[in-house]
Amino acid sequence: MAPLPPAARPPRAELHVHLEGTLEPDLAFELAARNGVVLPYPDPESLRAAYEFEDLQSFLDLYTAGMSVLRTEADFADLTRAYLTRVARAGVRHAEISFDPQAHLVRGVPLDVVVGGIAGVLERSETELGISTLLIASFHRDRDSADALDVLERLLAMAAPIVGIGLDSAEAGYPPGRFEAVYARAAQAGLRRTAHAGEEGPAANIRDALDVLHAERIDHGISVVQDPDLVARVVAQQVPFTVCPVSNVRLRAVPSLAEHPLPAMIEAGMLVSINSDDPPYFNAYLDDVDDAVTAAYELTRDQRAALAAASFRGSFLAPDRVAGRL
Ligand code: ES4
Ligand code: ZN
C-alpha cells in the first residue's frame, strides 16, 4: 500500500517519544561543535551507520553517549523544536514527550537548564506549530529509587511543568516494584503515571506496574500477550498501551513486524496507540511507523482512523479536551 500523503494523514497524538532519542546525527554534530564536545565518529553519516542494535542495552549505550552534546538551555530548546517541526508533517497534533532528568544530572547539567530549555519551546508549540504538548519526567529503572524520589522532589519544588512521570531504560533484572514510593508520591502530587514494562521483560512486570505502581498507562507492554488473564483485565479497564512496533523490531524484542503482537493486542480490544520511541535511532518518525504498520497489517482507512482516535483517548489530556480532538 502506498504511503499516505501528509494531507490524508488523520490528526493523531504521539504518546511515547524520548526527547533525547530524537537527536538527529546532524544536530548532534552541530551541538558538539557549539559546545566543544568531540564525538567518537568523524561525521553524521558514520554516526547514523552505527545505529544497528542487538538489543535494548546496545541502543541505550549509544543513546546515552549521544546526550553528551546536550549542555545548554539552547541545546534542549533546539532539540525539542527539531522534533516538533518534523512531526508536524506527520499529522501529529498532540505530543507527550518524555525526558530523562537523571541522564543529565549525572553529567552535571542542572535540572533548570534541561527543563527551561524544553519548556520554553513546549509552551509555544500549540500556537507556532499546531501541536499541543505535555511533558513527562522519566526515571531510570536501573538506578536507585531513592535517586528518582530525590529528583521528583526537586522537580516538584521548582514547579516544573510536567504532567506526569514515567519509568524507562534497562528492564532485564530491574522489575518495577522498587519504585512504589516514587509513584505514590507522584500520585499524591497530582501527577499522571506511565511506565515502560513488558518491552524485553515478562508480563509480570506489566502486572506490577499496574498493581504496585498504580500506573495509569503502559509503555510498550508487548509481553502482555503471554498472559491471557492480564489481557482480559487491561481490555476491561481500557488501560492505554503505547506500542512502538518499529522500535521493538530494531531492538530485536520481536523478529519482524509480521511477528509483532500488535494485531493481536488490537484484536483483543486493548486501547493501543502506535508510537515512535526514538525516531532517528530507528530511522522512523511517526508517519514512517504508521506507513510501515499500515503495509505490514494491510490496515484499512477506518482502522487507521480508529488508531488515530485511540492515540488521543490514551493521552493525558483532560477528557473534555480529548472529546474535541476525536
Ligand atoms: C528507550 Cl526503546 C527504550 N526503552 C527503554 N528506555 C528507553 N529510553 C529511551 N528509549
Ligand atoms: Zn520508550
Written description of the protein model:
- The protein has 326 residues and is an alpha/beta fold.
- The protein has a single domain, classed as Metal-dependent hydrolases (TIM Barrel, Alpha-Beta Barrel).
- It contains 15 helices and 8 strands.
- Strands 1-2-3-4-5-6-7-8 form an 8-stranded parallel β-sheet.
- It is globular, with a radius of gyration of 18 Å.
- The site of zinc ion (ZN) has 6 residues, from strand 1.
- The site of zinc ion has 6 residues, from strand 1.
Describe the structure concisely.
The protein is an alpha/beta fold and 326 residues long.
Series of secondary-structure elements, N-terminal to C-terminal:
EHHHHEHHEHEHEHEHEHHEHHH
Q: Give the helix level as a range of percent.
A: 40-55%
What small molecules accompany the polymer chains?
A: 6-chloro-9H-purine, zinc ion
Could you give the distance between the termini? 25 Å
**Total domains:** 1
User: For the record, what is the CATH homologous superfamily label?
Assistant: Metal-dependent hydrolases
CATH architecture: Alpha-Beta Barrel
- What count of helical segments does DSSP give? 15
Q: Which stretches are poorly predicted, pLDDT < 50 over at least 5 residues? A: none
Q: How much of the sequence is in beta strands?
A: 5-15%
